[in-house]
Amino acid sequence: QQLRQAIEECKRVILALPEHSERQKDAVVRLIHLRLKLQELKDPGEDEPNIRVVLEHRFYKEKSKSVKQMCDKCSTIIWGLIQTWYTCTGCYYRCHSKCLPLVSKPCVRAKVSHQAEYQLSICPESGLDSQDYRCAECRAPVSLR
């Protein structure tokens, strides 16, 4: 009941805010999250028991037994024959089931869908040489192989 009231309140706020404003976009995102929570409460994953939502990623449990996959969180091989692993349906982020609670980066596809305008300025980040040719997030070595 409280969730339904929050959804109705969020709808009122969206209609009251100026059109195409940042606050209105944030309110729409909040409304989507509230509706997803309500849907999860109505249907607690009976038809989709293999879906997990973490930081806007929609992870589904893989059934493939391929051994050529790499975990995007810990950068180690996912042994499909003996390990459970998940893939995000939006950005194809892969990780072990043990790494799933450790995911710290939000889904890129969700971010792009919320912020759909083009960036026309030059990228302000430093090059790989200033990062010692390592990933800025996980510090794993970056190479051409």
Automatic annotation (TrEMBL):
Every Phorbol-ester/DAG-type domain range: 56-107
Keyword Metal-binding: yes
Pfam families: C1_1
GO molecular function: zinc ion binding
The keyword Zinc-finger belongs to this UniProt entry's keyword annotation: yes
Keywords: Metal-binding, Repeat, Zinc, Zinc-finger
TM annotation in the entry: none
Alphabetized InterPro entries for the sequence: C1-like_sf (IPR046349), DEF8 (IPR051366), DEF8_C1 (IPR047983), PKC_DAG/PE (IPR002219)
Family annotation (PROSITE patterns): ZF_DAG_PE_1, ZF_DAG_PE_2
Region forming the signal peptide: none
Role of this protein: Positively regulates lysosome peripheral distribution and ruffled border formation in osteoclasts. Involved in bone resorption.
Family: Belongs to the DEF8 family.
PANTHER family assigned: DIFFERENTIALLY EXPRESSED IN FDCP 8 HOMOLOG, PLECKSTRIN HOMOLOGY DOMAIN CONTAINING PROTEIN
Name of the protein in its database record: DEFI8 protein
Gene (UniProt): Def8
